[in-house]
């Protein structure tokens, strides 16, 4: 709640963007909540779906609709995102829904940085694949896939909202490092053609 | 390079996505233990060439601990299994026996 009384939140990199052979951009602030507990618990499911208005994702999946999404983070963890203007409402909703002490949430909106890669599907996959030890081929990583791994030397999560677009979330403290790596990987002339 | 499949989240990744937590199935000695038992718990580790059982953590992934059975010479991974157990599942031991006949690791064979 501290952000409601403090200064307006700012993006880690002020919305930095780079037009390489794919576009790399820092996305506008989103409300992000980590929900932890038994993923089959009704109250946890209701809290997540009530916020994002999408179905619960399966293991290794993300369910999304625009900026609303629920991502499967681990057997007892979800990441729920909504547009920033729903942040205050979402906090109230979570407080009201998650009354069981074994189910809890943390507001991580300002602990994260969010980037997008957009462009031709094969090239977008390739830029991410240069940095993460993950099979990003269309067969192994179709739209709707969600994968926690590393980008260079830091933890990150990668998902594919739609063909031709990958979104990446990392800790805000390493936003500059991750953006620099993504920008370098997307530099014109460094195309590999891995995915056609 | 080791290719590990995390039994907690089902993701298959290479070893830099994980962190090794040392030898598996160490008995933690309590305050009642004698010096020899405590020394054994603190310091004695096997360093086999061949079949080895270890603890691993999916540090850049789901964050969970699990166990892995692998060959320390060829880096073949025989399987991974839950963290909360005192010995590998019998099915995994059968796999190791078939691939490495006559193997011995601590009291397991
Ligand atoms: Zn895992």
Automatic annotation (TrEMBL), chain A:
Query: In terms of domain of life, where is this protein from?
Result: Bacteria
Q: Which Pfam families match?
A: SoxG (PF04268)
Q: Which InterPro entries match?
A: SoxG, TrmE/GcvT-like
Q: What's the protein called, per UniProt?
A: Sarcosine oxidase, gamma subunit family
Q: What is the lineage of its organism?
A: Bacteria, Pseudomonadati, Pseudomonadota, Alphaproteobacteria, Rhodobacterales
Automatic annotation (TrEMBL), chain B:
Q: Which InterPro entries match?
A: SoxD, SoxD_sf
Single GO molecular function: sarcosine oxidase activity
- Gene Ontology BP terms: tetrahydrofolate metabolic process
Q: Which Pfam families match?
A: SoxD (PF04267)
Q: Which residue spans traverse the membrane?
A: none
Protein's UniProt name = Sarcosine oxidase, delta subunit family
